Amino acid sequence: MAKPKKNDSNSLIAENRQSRRNYEVVDTMEAGVMLLGTEVKSLRMGRANISESYARDENGELVLVNATIPIYPPAAQFNHEPLRMRKLLLKKKELAKLNQGISRDGMTIVPLKLYFNDRGLAKLLLGLAKGRKNHDKRDVEKKRDWDKQKARLMRAKG
């Protein structure tokens, strides 16, 4: 007998909204996250913060740094550390591609979204990104505003 699907499939837990403003995202890929039981329960409550986090290579493994998953109150003494580094699960080719982008092109690995997939597993959408300067941010905002205004004008004229 098949299990009924849960309502939380593809449910968003946390999003890094400033990442697309502060960085020019060149490529994205999905990574699994190694979590403890209390961390998963805390995520199911929808409590996480990835806005100041980033990923880095450590001893040939990719780890998520500065991601905050608050403690799960009912777990009492068996809780996790909220700011601990969490290992990211990627295939070797994906890891090599990210490491190449970091070392050769001077890019950064930025987490974009943290969510549960269809199977109920916690996944992290990573972006390989270049940092933007302030004048670049202004140019992008001007272009986006102009595109919106142009679309409005085209709709109004028919």
UniProtKB/TrEMBL annotation:
<feature type="region of interest" description="Disordered">
    <location>
        <begin position="136"/>
        <end position="158"/>
    </location>
</feature>
<comment type="similarity">
    <text>Belongs to the SmpB family.</text>
</comment>
<keyword id="KW-0694">RNA-binding</keyword>
<protein>
    <recommendedName>
        <fullName>SsrA-binding protein</fullName>
    </recommendedName>
</protein>
<feature type="compositionally biased region" description="Basic and acidic residues">
    <location>
        <begin position="136"/>
        <end position="150"/>
    </location>
</feature>
<dbReference type="InterPro" id="IPR020081">
    <property type="entry name" value="SsrA-bd_prot_CS"/>
</dbReference>
<dbReference type="InterPro" id="IPR000037">
    <property type="entry name" value="SsrA-bd_prot"/>
</dbReference>
<comment type="function">
    <text>Required for rescue of stalled ribosomes mediated by trans-translation. Binds to transfer-messenger RNA (tmRNA), required for stable association of tmRNA with ribosomes. tmRNA and SmpB together mimic tRNA shape, replacing the anticodon stem-loop with SmpB. tmRNA is encoded by the ssrA gene; the 2 termini fold to resemble tRNA(Ala) and it encodes a 'tag peptide', a short internal open reading frame. During trans-translation Ala-aminoacylated tmRNA acts like a tRNA, entering the A-site of stalled ribosomes, displacing the stalled mRNA.</text>
</comment>
<keyword id="KW-0963">Cytoplasm</keyword>
<dbReference type="InterPro" id="IPR023620">
    <property type="entry name" value="SmpB"/>
</dbReference>
<dbReference type="Pfam" id="PF01668">
    <property type="entry name" value="SmpB"/>
</dbReference>
